[in-house]
Description:
mainly alpha
Amino acid sequence: MMEFTLWDIIRNLLLAGRWTVLLSLIAFVSGGLVAMVVTLARISHNRGASTAARAYISILQGTPLLVQLFLAFFGLALLGFNVPPLAAASLALTLYTSAFLAEIWRGAIEAVPKGQWEGAQSLALTRAQQMRFIILPQALRVGIAPTAGFSVQVVKGTALASIIGFVELTKAGTVIVNATFDAFRIYGLVALFYFALCYPLSLAAKALEQKMAAGQGH
């Protein structure tokens, strides 16, 4: 059994925590970009695009993230693609994140009062202009809080990347536990690290929600 001082453990977890943060940022930013396209397709008057977006969202929301990670890593390997764990985790989490953000944003857009849509149409604006100048600014107020809240789920979802060998917080904790057999202390520290990452995001989401609610009350 290897001897690890408390500082050794914390230092290794901090190093692995950088990869958790990086993977979370990749998933959230790239997932957001994909979600924009899916959201626009979902609310499109084009039935084919809307149906395809609905199917995309249903499949990704209806299957476990763990299975999606396996498909991205082992499935692509079976097809002859040598995908590194970071790339596979990024791909799976991007798709997973995009599906949920697309639904959040669709709900925010559809929450805009019907009168606003009718007013936009009466101004003889194109569909793109209606969305850009009238609908999306109002939808942003509705969607920003749940979007921030979902970022917590993205951070916690990165823990599953340890299954495919990506060394983030959970995987680093497991490696240290296997060397020290001190599971309670190590996983307790891992939990504290996740809490330190997620709690500020939860507070930000709650603050945004309260701010938006206060703004709508005036």
